[in-house]
């Protein structure tokens, strides 16, 4: 086989997600009353990147065969924090941004420490820490409010050169400066190896713990980037419980749509980004067809069910039935 | 052999697992530029020995020296650092990563903190070429490769680490003949390059071809070292014999004429590369043993009968009628009445957090319930019977089964199946890790069930048990039945010789005079 075929096989999940997204987006824009305009793209991008950041965060953890049920709450917490700190002069704003990102990193690091060194199951550990993060968010913003440096907010949610949504540029930058270095580093490979077969990785002398810890910590950071952007869109902070939970669950959906295996070891954050964008577009599809918004969750659920079922086909090839349960 | 300081020495190494001693003051010395074969039957301590060498297991006592200096290894990585690389039987490859990723996994080449993919590719291609496996594409995912190719990747991975001591633990067991020939070429070249190779294999012909030096292990200690070719196969078997008999077995009945129609029969069962045309019969009242070295297809054979394997070819007959058993649920149905006592009771036999009572009645719930409602009184009666029959020691029926001792847990597993009164009982190494007292009770029970008319197929890695319990033993090698031993033919010598697939028919091996 030629090299490109191996590359194609490796990227299949990502490409499939890209394909789903493109098809959905074409249907969406071609039926949108305004059509394919810079405005429509910008709005869609701004809505999409929020979930994209959270889904990237989820990907990092899922790759290690874990799951992070606190990403939505880190997202909410950093939103509330940003509505206090990201304000004032340029320098103050910059420090605010750093503080918000640092908080996300810390939250992720705490998750990682509990899971790796405390040996708790990821699902239990992150439900608990998620509740804590939300609790802090609620204390920070008992009522929706606060404000943000509007110049920065407008710049990052607007358009570059009148066409390119700035939020997409930031997303691209995060991919280039966070995801790509991670996935190509020794730690990133350790995270994949640990997710695919922890025993084999251990026997090969791979730094499993550091790899997993880096994955959890960076997940917190990426969720914080999402929280920051939420603040830029809304100009406020809000400790919204339902919304935080929804982001957690949607991030898992986006990850699966993006071809990332929940069993770990396989997939890429880029796939998850397309998964997130596709998931958002599917949700918005009903609006352009003038359906009652009541139908949205049902519709989204059905599409998601179909998408995740695709992943189960591999089980038909298993010849020793005991392997079903591995 | 030459008077020089050996490259690596192990002195007085001991290791215990609970009450079981795996190594007892074992000694080994390895020299550069030679291939050293390690021989021994199941449980002789070979695996523990190399785990100690490779840093996987820490010894309880003893010392190791490398180049004359004392060393200790805290992890496999530390052993690798010192130049000791082991190719384990259970593959240590990460399935979702590519071949190249796996080959460099311990120490990937980096540039500016990121993995240098070009360099990685180059290293991988070199290593694959050195291993004689240039046909494997470095970008292929390991999980997509067949087992024999994975084994070659494993070898390439070991070579990429530039070892001084390379340990091969049954490394050729999954390989095709062509690959074995290639690997032998590679190993001989490595010997010329001055590596020390440690070769663990049960294939006597391979050892005869490769080894310079051989060491035989028995009961956790090295019992003999000799230059290869100075002992005959029979002498080697003689060295491996000599386990201490510690169990008491119930008397075997005089061999009655077996009924014309066997209860369980297999005709030419084959499955992937693990089972190869296996035919056998088990009659009512018979205890038939499955022997051979660990991992020669015995487990797969039991799983095949129990309806776990898909894509099985050949025929299974119950009472002379061909049947298709599609699942464990099908295997236990009335017409068939089969039960499997699994090897790993913790994952396949019991639900550890659930109570003794619940675990006991799982397999028989359909019989104990009417319209989906469990008849608690009938359940209690049956459970009482079983707890009494097997003398299960438990503080109560409503405590988690995980709180019982290993032996009592195993009794629960067996009792669970006996509640269905099975006619065919498959046992997969049921006495592993349980105490001697419980073992003896199980032997008695097995004979009692057979006397009551059950057909029993019994796989054990402990040759003593096969000798003491079985009316007949079938010895498997490479997924095929190589030998059938009946009655007085079942001796340790015959079991070991046939497990190693030594063709010594004309020699006195099969007479088993001194058992």
Automatic annotation (TrEMBL), chain A:
UniProt membrane topology term? Multi-pass membrane protein
| Location(s), subcellular | Cell membrane
Residue ranges crossing the lipid bilayer per the database entry: 12-29, 49-67, 74-91, 97-116, 123-140, 160-180, 213-234, 246-263, 270-289, 295-316
Which keywords does this Swiss-Prot/TrEMBL entry list? Cell membrane, Membrane, Transmembrane, Transmembrane helix
Q: Name one GO cellular component term.
A: plasma membrane
| Primary site of residence | membrane
InterPro entries tied to this protein = ABC_transp_permease (IPR001851)
Q: Which CDD domains match?
A: TM_PBP1_transp_AraH_like
Any one Gene Ontology MF annotation carried by this entry is:
transmembrane transporter activity
Its domain of life? Bacteria
Xref: Pfam families? BPD_transp_2
Q: Which PANTHER family match?
A: ABC TRANSPORTER PERMEASE PROTEIN YPHD-RELATED-RELATED (PTHR32196)
Q: Mind telling me what this protein is named? A: Ribose transport system permease protein
Species this chain originates from: Mesorhizobium sangaii
From TrEMBL, chain B:
Extract the InterPro entries matched here: AAA+_ATPase, ABC_carbohydrate_import_ATPase, ABC_transporter-like_ATP-bd, ABC_transporter-like_CS, P-loop_NTPase
Q: Which SUPFAM superfamilies match?
A: P-loop containing nucleoside triphosphate hydrolases (SSF52540)
Keyword annotations of the record: ATP-binding, Nucleotide-binding, Repeat, Sugar transport, Transport
Q: Where is the ABC transporter domain?
A: 8-244, 258-503
Q: Which GO terms describe its molecular function?
A: ATP binding; ATP hydrolysis activity
Origin: domain of life: Bacteria
Q: Which CDD domains match?
A: ABC_Carb_Monos_I, ABC_Carb_Monos_II
> Per its UniProt record, what PROSITE patterns does this chain match?
ABC_TRANSPORTER_1, ABC_TRANSPORTER_2
Nucleotide-binding as UniProt keyword: yes
Q: Which PANTHER family match?
A: CARBOHYDRATE TRANSPORT ATP-BINDING PROTEIN MG119-RELATED, GALACTOFURANOSE TRANSPORTER ATP-BINDING PROTEIN YTFR
Q: Which family does it belong to?
A: Belongs to the ABC transporter superfamily.
Q: What is this protein called?
A: Ribose transport system ATP-binding protein
């Amino acid at each position: 086989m030629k090299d490109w075929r191996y590359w194609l096989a490796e990227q299949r999940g990502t490409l499939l997600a890209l394909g789903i997204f493109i098809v959905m987006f074409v249907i969406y824009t071609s039926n949108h009353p305004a059509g394919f305009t810079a405005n429509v793209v910008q709005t869609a991008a701004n809505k999409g990147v929020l979930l994209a950041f959270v889904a990237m965060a989820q990907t990092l953890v899922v790759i290690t065969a874990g799951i992070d049920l606190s990403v939505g709450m880190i997202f909410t917490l950093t939103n509330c924090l940003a509505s206090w700190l990201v304000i004032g002069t340029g320098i103050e704003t910059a420090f605010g941004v750093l503080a918000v990102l640092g908080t996300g990193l810390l939250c992720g690091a705490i998750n990682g420490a509990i899971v790796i060194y405390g040996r708790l199951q990821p699902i239990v550990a992150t439900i608990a820490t998620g509740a804590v993060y939300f609790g802090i968010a609620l204390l920070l913003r008992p009522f929706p409010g606060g404000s943000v440096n509007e110049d920065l907010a407008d710049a990052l949610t607007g358009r570059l050169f009148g066409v390119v949504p700035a939020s997409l540029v930031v997303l691209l930058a995060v991919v280039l400066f966070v995801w790509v270095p991670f996935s190509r580093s020794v730690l990133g490979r350790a995270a994949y190896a640990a997710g695919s077969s922890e025993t084999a990785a251990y026997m090969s002398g791979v730094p499993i713990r550091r790899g997993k810890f880096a994955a959890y910590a960076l997940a917190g950071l990426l969720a914080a980037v999402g929280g920051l952007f939420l603040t830029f869109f809304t100009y406020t902070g809000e400790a919204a419980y339902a919304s935080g939970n929804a982001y957690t669950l949607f991030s898992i959906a986006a990850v699966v749509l993006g071809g990332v295996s929940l069993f770990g070891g396989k997939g890429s954050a880029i796939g998850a980004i397309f998964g997130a964008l596709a998931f958002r577009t599917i949700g918005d599809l009903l609006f352009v067809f003038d359906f009652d918004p009541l139908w949205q969750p049902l519709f989204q659920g059905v599409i998601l069910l179909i998408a995740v079922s695709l992943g189960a086909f591999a089980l038909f090839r298993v010849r020793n039935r005991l392997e079903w349960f591995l | 052999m030459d008077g020089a300081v050996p490259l690596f020495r192990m002195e007085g190494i001991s290791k215990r697992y609970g009450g079981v001693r795996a190594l007892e003051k074992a000694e080994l010395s390895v020299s550069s530029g030679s291939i050293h074969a390690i021989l021994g039957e199941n449980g002789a301590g070979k695996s523990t020995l190399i785990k100690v060498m490779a840093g996987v297991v820490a010894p309880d006592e003893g010392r190791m020296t490398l180049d004359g200096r004392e060393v200790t290894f805290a992890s496999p990585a530390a052993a690798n650092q010192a130049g000791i690389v082991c190719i384990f039987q259970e593959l240590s490859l990460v399935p979702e990563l590519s071949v190249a990723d796996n080959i460099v996994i311990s120490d990937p080449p980096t540039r500016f903190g990121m993995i240098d993919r070009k360099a990685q590719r180059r290293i991988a291609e070199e290593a694959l070429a050195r291993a004689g496996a240039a046909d494997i594409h470095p970008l292929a995912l390991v999980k997509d490769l067949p087992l024999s190719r994975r084994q070659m990747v494993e070898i390439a991975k070991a070579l990429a680490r530039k070892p001084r001591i390379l340990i091969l633990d049954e490394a050729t067991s999954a390989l095709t003949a062509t690959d074995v020939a290639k690997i032998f070429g590679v190993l001989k070249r490595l010997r010329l390059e001055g590596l020390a190779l440690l070769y663990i294999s049960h294939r006597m012909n391979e050892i005869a071809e490769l080894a310079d030096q051989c060491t035989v292990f028995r009961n956790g200690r090295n019992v003999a070292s000799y230059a290869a070719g100075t002992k005959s196969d029979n002498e080697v078997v003689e060295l491996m014999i000599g386990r201490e008999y510690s169990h008491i077995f119930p008397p075997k009945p005089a061999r009655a004429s077996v009924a014309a129609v066997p209860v369980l029969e297999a005709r030419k069962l084959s499955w992937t590369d693990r089972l190869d045309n296996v035919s056998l019969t088990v009659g009512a009242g018979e205890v038939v043993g499955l022997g051979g070295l660990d991992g020669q297809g015995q487990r797969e054979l039991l799983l095949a009968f129990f309806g776990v394997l898909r894509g099985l070819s050949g025929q299974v007959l119950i009472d002379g009628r061909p049947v298709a058993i599609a699942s464990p649920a099908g295997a236990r149905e009335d017409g068939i009445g089969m039960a499997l006592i699994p090897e790993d009771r913790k994952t396949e036999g019991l639900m550890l957090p659930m109570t003794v009572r619940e675990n006991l009645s799982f397999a028989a719930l359909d019989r104990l319930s009417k319209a989906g409602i469990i008849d608690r009184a009938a359940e209690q009666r049956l459970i009482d019977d079983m707890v009494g029959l097997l003398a299960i020691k438990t503080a109560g029926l409503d405590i988690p089964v995980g709180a019982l001792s290993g032996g009592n847990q195993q009794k629960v597993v067996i009792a669970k199946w006996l509640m269905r009164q099975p006619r065919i009982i498959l046992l997969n190494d049921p006495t592993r890790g349980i105490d001697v007292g419980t073992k003896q009770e199980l032997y008695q029970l097995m004979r009692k069930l057979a006397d009551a008319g059950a057909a029993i197929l019994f796989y054990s890695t402990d040759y003593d048990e096969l000798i003491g319990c079985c009316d007949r033993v079938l010895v498997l090698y490479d997924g095929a039945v190589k030998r059938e031993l009946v009655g007085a033919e079942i001796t340790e010598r015959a079991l070991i010789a046939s497990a190693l697939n030594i063709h010594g028919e004309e020699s006195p091996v099969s007479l088993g005079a001194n058992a």
